[in-house]
Amino acid sequence: NGPRGPEPLAPWNVLCYYAEEISLRVPLQVVTTPISNWSEKILEKLHIPNIMAQDVPNLPPDYYTCQFHTNKLERFLGHENKDTFFKTTQRHQILYEILARTPYGSLKRGEVGIGRLVSEHVLTASSTSYLNITLTDTLIIQILHHYWARWACWRKYQPLDHIREYFGEKIALYFAWLGFYTGWLLPAAVVGFIIFLFGIWLMVTDVAAEELCSSGNAFVMCPLCNICSYWNLSSICYTYKAGLLFDNGGTVFFSIFMSLWAVTFLEYWKRTSSILSHRWDCSEFEEIEERPRPEFTALAPMTVRNPVTGAEEPYFPETQRLSRTITGNMVIILMIAIVLIFLIAIILYRTILSIIIYRSQNRAFSPLILHFLLLEMHRTQTKYENAFILKVFIFQFVNFYSSPVYIAFFKGRFVGYPGNYNTLLGIRNEDCGASGCLIELAQELLVIMVGKQVISNIQEFVLPKLKPAPSQELIDEPDGQPDLSPWEANYQLLVCEGLFDEYLEMVLQFGFITIFVAACPLAPFFALINNWVEVRLDAQKFVCEYRRPVVERAQDIGIWLTILKFISYLAVISNAFLISFTSDFLPRLYYRYTTGSMRGYINFTLSVAPANFTQSYMTCRYRGLRDDKGQPTQDYYHLLAIRLSFVIIFEHVVLLIGRIIDWMVPDIPEEVEIKIKREHYMAKEALAENQSPPSLLWLLFI
């Protein structure tokens, strides 16, 4: 059961059989077109020196490829050398395919595959990814360490082709997306910083702020809670001015900018993803090449013909899967209900907020979700992982965003007015602080974008160094020799737990900088700084601290792209309501339009408490547009109509422009479409029974 053992090498005939079985793609011809990325092209057009470029040695060549067929071996590039024809990552995929589909017990109970043996602790690890480590592998890992995983490379491009060559397409696509996202944060951070500087200028020149600060005892405010005392509005002079940093006309422009930025970012990522998936031979992976999961194959009651490939494949009837899916979804409903119960507790008892949220993390629920995902019987690993990601993300979405959503849209909305306060379970509803809810939301986002991210990065840097290595007894050297084989040295590193936590951290961050950006224009700036650090932290973990994971193929970033699209649409609606109902932008605009200046704005926003509230000659004020009886004034209804109209107009205009951007930016660049057509033609020629020269039609096409 320990890690010691021989290093098995698959014979050539086994490699050929499984390469054809799992639809591996092999080279036909070298692609001579130089590889470049979007930022290189932009800097070249602007004639700006590219400080991010670096000459990484041994760049893996790009090939036109097609699916491997044993009987056409002589038509593939490099078929003469059996030792190098299949890449190391392809050999790993074949070995893992064999081990993953080998039964060790009852098929009816799904006792198949090395993955289950490891999960049941029969084996300590599966070592397919570091068997037969070659000189090429050693050279690539040295290149990755020198040109990628060092802090000195913080401003350099990532060597994505080398990452793919060593770790496989799935991990390479994650780092490609992370680098692309970080690069696109730069314009958002610059614009957000300019908006912040505009807020600083507004702090000094704002008429309403000067009116509040110089009011003295003119505005005596009603108590904010049952045990609070009266207070002067002038006491919040500094916090009111600080609120202008985030609550000003510039944030409206920035909200529109970020909504369109999110749409454009996703459209151009789809283009980049299509370029990479074609270059890395994964553009048809999910539709044609991906094999059914071993557990699905073992437990499927019947087989049907695949309409795409024509092959017989295991099949689970939809009626059987429906009941399993419903059972699995009940777990999510239960988890969300628990989080909502905690949210109510947060509203009532703010002092125990951190304890409740901290103890409701997904770690306690992940095994339960995995158990129900096994019941749902998803056909491929991609569908299985997408289902898992969606379920956990729904829970984490409610968990992480519940507090900001409460502050932004619910806190202070149902308070009532002096003498007629609303209560929940006998407790007076929580009101916004003296400076308003938007400044509270900005403070919450600053804590998340600065404090939480700094702590997270420190944990990512320190914790792997504190975790114990595997028990030394399992790798005991009988002759006392200290030198370990490469696979034994790899075994001593930490287990790579996948990419879910890495993606989740970044996608949640994407939500914070888009959904609530109207409250904190500096959020993209802090996200940019964090991600520069995150890229190198993750690189160091994968190169220096994690065992080499099982090489996995992927066509794109999976369901994370769908989640990002959902967040981008939600951000438009969220920012529309933030500007309309939480920000002071529209009340200020309405007052300036009706009076011609901002003089008297503070008095306009305050109402006088009803006579039955005060128990002495003193009168007090509170925020709201109500008369002396507590009823909404005409200005309240005018402003409400303006707010609702703004939401509708903002949402429609931004989404319309977003759809225009979607229409104008094709998902697949024209040069990639030409390469795909050329590759299909070359594959057809290579796999034809009788080799023939290229047709005149193709010569005209190229």
TrEMBL record:
Coiled coil: none
Domain Anoctamin transmembrane: 163-679
Location(s), subcellular: Cell membrane; Membrane
UniProt-listed InterPro entries: Anoct_dimer, Anoctamin, Anoctamin_TM
The UniProt record lists the keyword Transmembrane: yes
Similarity remark: Belongs to the anoctamin family.
Name under which the protein is recorded: Anoctamin
Organism: Cyprinus carpio
